[in-house]
């Protein structure tokens, strides 16, 4: 099985200079846990995950209200919290090897890149879906 057999090809992305409030809104509304960050040429330069946004919980614990938290998120660009040095795979990469990579590196997603451009994303949920949809023996 190849990565292309499991990946999602519709990927919501961010730019490095997008506000964190945008990332927060899209992730909440779309129930998305990982968003690749791309540069002007469409190359993957980072990933923002829900974990990267959990700092908002810290602000709330410190007594910030929703409005104040929103203001903080509007002042921070994505590049301030995104993970860089992102592992990527090609659509033709072996799915089992991709799963091992995710386990070894303790990462929840792998952007799928072909000819330097983002073409999909492979997440833990994609592997869960395979198991959930497998016939029982």
Structure description:
The model has no long low-confidence stretch (mean pLDDT 87). The strands form two sheets. This protein has a three-stranded mixed sheet. A two-stranded antiparallel sheet has the order 4-5. Helix 1 crosses helix 4 (66-75). 21% of the residues are buried. Strand 1 (14-15), helix 1 and strand 2 form a beta-alpha-beta unit. The chain is built from six helices and five strands. With 137 residues, it is of the alpha+beta class. It is globular.
Percentage of residues assigned to helices? 25-40%
Radius of gyration, CA atoms, in whole angstroms:
16 Å
Task: Report, as a whole number of angstroms, the end-to-end distance.
Answer: 19 Å
Assembly type: single chain
**DSSP strand tally:** 5
Report the structural category: alpha+beta
Blueprint (SSEs and pairs):
Elements (H helix, E strand, L loop, with lengths): L13 E2 L4 H11 L3 E5 L5 E6 H4 L1 H7 L4 H10 L19 H11 L3 E6 L2 E7 H10 L4
Parallel strand pairs: 1-2
Antiparallel strand pairs: 2-3, 4-5
A few lines on this structure:
The protein has 137 residues and is an alpha+beta fold.
Key phrases:
3-stranded mixed sheet; alpha+beta; 137 residues; two-stranded antiparallel sheet; 5 strands
């Amino acid at each position: 099985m190849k990565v292309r057999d499991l990946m999602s090809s519709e990927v919501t992305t961010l730019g490095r200079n997008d506000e964190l409030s945008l990332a927060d809104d899209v992730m909440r509304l779309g129930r998305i846990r990982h968003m690749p960050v791309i540069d002007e040429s469409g190359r993957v330069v980072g990933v923002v995950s829900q974990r990267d946004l959990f700092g908002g919980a810290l602000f709330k614990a410190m007594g910030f209200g929703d409005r104040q938290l929103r203001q903080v998120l509007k002042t921070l660009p994505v590049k301030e919290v995104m993970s860089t040095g992102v592992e990527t795979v090609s659509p033709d990469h072996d799915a089992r090897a991709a799963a091992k990579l995710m386990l070894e590196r303790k990462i929840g997603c792998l952007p799928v890149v072909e000819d330097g451009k983002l073409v999909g994303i492979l997440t833990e949920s994609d592997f869960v879906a395979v198991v959930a949809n497998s016939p029982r023996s």
